[in-house]
Amino acid sequence: MAAAQGQRSDDAGEMDGAQGVVADAGPPPFRAAVEALRGARLRPQIEVEQTRSPKRLAPYAYALEAAVVDGEEDLADGRLVLLHDPDGHDAWQGTFRLVTLVRAELEPEMAADPLLPEVCWSWLTGALSARGLACGEPSGTVTRAGSHYFGGLAERPPASQIEIRASWTPRESAAGVPDTAAHLAAWCDLLCQIAGLPPIAAADGSVVSLPQRRGPRST
C-alpha cells in the first residue's frame, strides 16, 4: 500500500508529521469509537490496516490505511485518522475530528475535466450524506497533478493523479461517541468511488447512491 504524501497547513496536511503508535488507552468515548472502527464490516475489495498515527494533532488519535485492490493493482488508497480531544476544540466544534487523505490515478478524459475538483469534493460529501451522516466544520482540498516522462522513462505514458485531503467533525451521540463505523464505511465508499467501482447495497438492503463518476474507467 502506498504511503500518503504531500503537505498542507490544515489537519489533513499535518498527518505526514511526527508519528507514534496509538496505545489501547484513553477516555471511554475514544475507546468506544476505536472499537467501532475495528469492528466495521467493509467491502471485500478494500484492504484496511492500522498504521502509526500523528501525535501533534490531538491528545488521542487512531489511524487506518486502506487500499482498493483489484488483483495486484491498487486502484485507490488513503488514510483515515480519528482525533479526540476530551476538552473540545474550537476549530472542530466538538471533541472528535476525522481527517483523511485519498488518492488515485485518473484516466485522461477525467483528468481533463475542468469541474473535476468540484466533482471529487461532491463524492466525499455525497458518501457521507448517502449514509445519513451529519458532519460539522468540513474543510479540505482537491489537488490534480500530471506526470510526463522523459529520457530513460520516455516509454511510460503520461499519468494523472487526484488527491483529496479533508477533515470534518462527526456528530456525537448522547453518550459523546460518534458512529465511527458508519463514517469509515462512507469513507470506503469514497475510496471505491474514486477507484471507479459501482455502489453496493447497504446493510439495510438499500443501495448507497453516490454522485456520478464521470467517464468509464479504462481497462
Please explain how this structure is put together.
It is a single chain. By secondary structure, this protein is of the alpha+beta class. It has helices spanning 28-39, 108-111, 116-130, 180-195, and strands at 19-20, 46-51, 53-54, 60-70, 73-89, 94-106, 135-147, 159-170. Strands 2-4-5-6-8-7 form a six-stranded antiparallel sheet. It is elongated and about 55 Å long. The relative contact order is 0.19. It holds the Pfam family DUF3000.
Strand content: 25-35%
Largest sheet: 6 strands, antiparallel
* Percentage of residues assigned to helices: 10-25%
Shape: elongated
Low-confidence stretches: 1-10, 14-23, 202-219
Distance between the termini: 21 Å
Radius of gyration: 17 Å
Secondary-structure-based class equals alpha+beta
Strand order of the largest sheet: 2-4-5-6-8-7
How many DSSP H or I helices? Answer: 4
What is the N-to-C order of secondary-structure elements (H for helix, E for strand)?
EHEEEEEHHEEH
Keyphrases for this structure?
single chain, 219 residues, alpha+beta, 6-stranded antiparallel sheet, two-stranded antiparallel sheet, 4 helices, 8 strands, 21% helix, elongated, disordered N terminus
